[in-house]
Amino acid sequence: MTQQRALRIGMTIGIRSEGEGMWVNGIKQNALYLAKLFQHSPLGHSVVLVNTTAVVLSGALPWDTARFPVRSFDEMKDALDVLIELGGQISEEQTRYLKARGTRLVSYCCGPEYVQMIEAMIFNRRLADTVFINQQYDAIWAIPQVMETSAPFFGTLRRVPVREVPFVWDPMCLNMRTRDLPFEGEYRPQGGETPSSKRLTVMEPNIDVLKFCLYPLLIAEQAFRSVGDAIAHLHVTNAEHLARHSPEFIGIARYLDLVRQGKASFVGRYDTPQFLSEHTDIVISHQWGLALNYFYFDVCWNGYALVHNAQLCREIGYYYAGNDVEEGARQVVHAVQHHDDDWVAYRSKQRKAIVPYLATNPELIASYDALLAGLFDMRPGG
User: Fold this and answer.
1) Rama region for 40: left / alpha / beta (φ>0; ψ in -120 to 50; rest)
2) 318 has which bridge partners?
3) pLDDT above 70 covers what percent of the chain?
4) Which range among 24-33, 200-209, 332-341 shows the weakest confidence by mean pLDDT?
5) Using one digit for the tens of pLDDT, what is the confidence trace for 105-137?
6) Does residue 226 register a pLDDT over 90?
7) Phi, psi at 99, each rounded to 5°
């Protein structure tokens, strides 16, 4: 067993523009959380984010670049012990260069690529003009929520066994976004001591079958039929295009009491923290094959009621199993009627439940240090 030691670690990101925000997708947050974890190792790793695009950076990025520096591949190609390919892919030529140096190359898989690829094939959704499958990784690390759908896809094409690795989260990005919001973005009951009707929110991406708004919409409808005006309104984000241009979506929605009574709005894209702060008491979510997500932790960390079916983190929020709309509705009704009974204790409970996933958790750090050490127990190339 190789003795653990401080390593020079690079993690790829793909920056498309200098002003690109962290809430465009989860990849940059993922890189920052993993970088923070490595920085907290007692071994003293050095960590750099390696940009794989041609965008020239001049300090306009939305995070602390002194703490999380960003460099180009050419700047870092001779200064790394490990390169973790996460948010941007390196080329075949760049791979050969690193392998010749003895740099260990890891594919860190945090997206449901099998599902995304077959949807591209079936529905003609262009993902790339050409497909490059790198078959020179030393290891493939995949987070738990993509193992079921995508691990065989990764392992077969990349010719390396897939290793499940722990999910990592941190409130740092959430805190950066909420520091200027009322109560720093944390949940507060509306109406003071007088109970008020609750605002429901659905914030699924609505770009594939894994996280779509229809089941949450049905759950909200069932809850509304039970408690009526105790529900003030339902907002469904990332759904304006569906409400305007999808005959099937429109055709279903018009049968719902929430829609008929003007209690539902289908709006565009918003970042999570601001929409929660301004429009939300209870979030309803549904997933199908993606049972861990930063969104769940963003919601629960700040004390908002989350009704969800993500079995890999069933200990947070208000859980219902599978596609059980009736149970989901019961959980919504319970949150409507009782969430405010002890909302401070709820927030504390959520944060305690999220501790195992934190980038600063010593047990999680030790797990990743062992993974890093394992890279040097194998011959280069796996």
Assistant:
1) alpha
2) 307
3) 94
4) 24-33
5) 999 999 999 999 999 999 988 887 788 999 999
6) yes
7) -65, -35
Averaged confidence pLDDT in the chain: 93
Residue 76, SS3? Answer: helix
Whether residues 342 and 364 share a domain: the answer is: no
pLDDT per position as a tens digit, 145-154: 999 999 999 9
Answer for the pair 306, 319: CB distance below 8 angstroms, yes or no. Answer: no
Q: Which residues pair with 36 in a beta bridge?
A: none
Q: Are residues 146 and 230 in the same domain?
A: no
Q: What is the pLDDT of residue 129?
A: 77
Q: Rounded to whole angstroms, how far apart are CA atoms 317 and 335?
A: 10
Contact 283/307 with Cβ under 8 angstroms?
yes
The alpha carbon of residue 324 and the mean position of all alpha carbons in its chain are separated, in whole angstroms, by 23
Instruction: Give, as one character, the DSSP assignment of residue 209.
Output: S
Residue 134 shares a structural domain with residue 36:
yes
Looking at the predicted structure, is the pLDDT value of residue 156 above 80?
Answer: yes
Q: Does some domain include residue 2?
A: no
Q: First and final CA of the chain: distance in angstroms?
A: 15
Number of structural domains in the chain: 2
Q: Roughly what angle, to the nearest 10 degrees, separates helices 325-338 and 214-227?
A: 50
pLDDT at site 128: 78
Q: DSSP secondary structure string, 296-327?
A: HHHHHHTT-EEEE--GGGTTSSEE--TT-HHH
Rounded distance, CA 143 to CA 163, Å?
Answer: 9
Amino acid at 283: V
If you write DSSP's letter for every residue of 251-275 in order, what string do you get? Answer: HHHTTSHHHHTT-EEE-----HHHH
Instruction: State pTM to two decimals.
Output: 0.93
Q: Provide the domain limits for residue 33.
A: 8-170+358-375
Pair 126, 85 in one domain: yes
